[in-house]
Amino acid sequence: MHTQTITAPAIPAAKAFPTPCARTAPTVDQFRVIASCAGMIASEFSYRKDEEIYGDGEPCEYVYQVVRGAVRTYKLLTDGRRQIGAFHLPGDVFGLDAGSTHRLTAEAITDTTVRLVKRRSLEAAAGSNVQVAHSLWTLTSSGLRHAEDHMLLLGRKTAMEKVATFLLEMDRRLAKAGMMALRCAAATSATISA
Description:
By secondary structure, this protein is α+β, with helices and mostly antiparallel strands. The protein has helices at 13-16, 30-38, 119-128, 130-156, 159-176, 185-193, and strands spanning 2-7, 41-47, 52-54, 62-68, 71-76, 82-88, 93-94, 105-108, 112-118. 40% of the residues lie in helices and 25% in strands.
């Protein structure tokens, strides 16, 4: 595992969000905004393919952001199967659990680099800085929206439609992250919508 420490200097509130509309822009890296506003130290760690980042039941000490590569979170079932919680791509934040321990295991899918900040530092910064609290709320509500969309998908589509929707979503997310994308996604999307 390779490590690198990055210190983000505190940025005055006026510079963190140059215009009011920047707060709601979907391209704003909320993790970077949090670190910048709070002057937090973010460390980068590299993991090899299939290496565990954290385990189910371990203490929630850090919040993570994928810098390069991809991460899967999953629950190991009693029969040995894995129930996938989510796939996290560059820019995605994970490990922001509600409790004091992780409910899922996080593992690198490929050689992966993640940025992390201490959860205690994040909580302290959110308690004293409204921009940090807002960015944290934005991250959390985005994750909740994704989970709600996933729940609705599972309840109303056939198995084939679920697989097709998953592939189209991953294609969109991979393209957004500047990674591999399917060339036929637009045609496939039009066919499924019809």
